[in-house]
């Protein structure tokens, strides 16, 4: 289906699942090479990253661990500018190689907050893997952003974990708002 409605908003197809899968396979290969001989700890940022993280770690063939944190900053299509911490970081971060897994980096506010929290716990290294990045929306400089699936325009997207008012996370493809 190429046009859909989620609540009151119209969306059109943007990135099909097959395109996502191919890119995620390549991201996994790159991580396998970069972390050879190490045991990275993937930290998924809930809720949006759950499908991406699941598909990404299936491509990882080195030893690794998986954990989650939960923060929230968005209501509808706009950032509240305030980060709420709902599930905290795991205890065992000191000395670990951390890979934060995000569905999307938009303004960069969420990630900046999470990176600060993680760096306070003395990890060996911290990198970020985000499926999507909106370069035109970015307000913070994020040096740790090492693995990016797709750079996209500054448009609201939904599907494959990303929501609009809590809906649409279950869509297999990613759609963009048409503004109609
Ligand atoms: O770069 P930013 O402007 O901070 O936006 C990116 C963040 O916004 C979304 O999370 P949200 O707070 O909507 O929670 P969710 O993952 O539960 O949807 C998304 O999953 C990122 O974590
Ligand atoms: O474009 C978006 N879609 C869904 N959630 C988001 N969180 C930040 N940007 C977005």
From TrEMBL:
Its cofactor is Mg(2+). Its EC number is 2.4.2.8. PANTHER family: HYPOXANTHINE PHOSPHORIBOSYLTRANSFERASE (PTHR43340:SF1), HYPOXANTHINE-GUANINE PHOSPHORIBOSYLTRANSFERASE (PTHR43340). Keywords: Cytoplasm, Glycosyltransferase, Magnesium, Metal-binding, Nucleotide-binding, Purine salvage, Transferase. Residues 19-164 form the Phosphoribosyltransferase domain. Pathway: Purine metabolism; IMP biosynthesis via salvage pathway; IMP from hypoxanthine: step 1/1. GO terms for biological process: GMP salvage; guanine salvage; hypoxanthine metabolic process; IMP salvage; purine ribonucleoside salvage. One of its GO terms (molecular function) is hypoxanthine phosphoribosyltransferase activity. Belongs to the purine/pyrimidine phosphoribosyltransferase family. This is Hypoxanthine phosphoribosyltransferase. It catalyses: GMP + diphosphate = guanine + 5-phospho-alpha-D-ribose 1-diphosphate; IMP + diphosphate = hypoxanthine + 5-phospho-alpha-D-ribose 1-diphosphate. The keyword Glycosyltransferase applies. One of its GO terms (cellular component) is cytosol. SUPFAM superfamilies: PRTase-like. InterPro entries: HGPRT, Hxn_phspho_trans, PRTase-like, PRTase_dom. It is found in: Cytoplasm.
């Amino acid at each position: 289906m190429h046009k859909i409605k989620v609540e009151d908003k119209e969306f059109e197809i943007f990135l099909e699942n097959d395109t996502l899968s191919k890119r995620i396979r390549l991201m996994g290969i790159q991580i396998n090479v970069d972390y050879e001989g190490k045991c990275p700890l993937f930290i998924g940022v809930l809720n949006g990253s759950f499908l991406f993280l699941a598909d990404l770690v299936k491509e990882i063939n080195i030893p690794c661990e998986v954990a989650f944190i939960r923060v929230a900053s968005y209501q509808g299509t706009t950032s509240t500018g305030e980060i709420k911490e709902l599930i905290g970081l795991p205890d065992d971060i000191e000395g670990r190689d951390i890979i934060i897994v995000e569905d999307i980096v938009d303004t960069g506010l969420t990630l900046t907050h999470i990176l600060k929290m993680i760096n306070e716990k003395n990890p060996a290294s911290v990198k970020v893997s985000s499926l999507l990045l909106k370069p035109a929306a970015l307000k913070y400089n994020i040096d740790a952003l090492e693995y990016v699936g797709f750079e996209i325009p500054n448009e609201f997207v939904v599907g494959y974990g990303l929501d609009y008012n809590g809906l649409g996370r279950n869509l297999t493809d990613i759609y963009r708002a048409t503004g109609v």
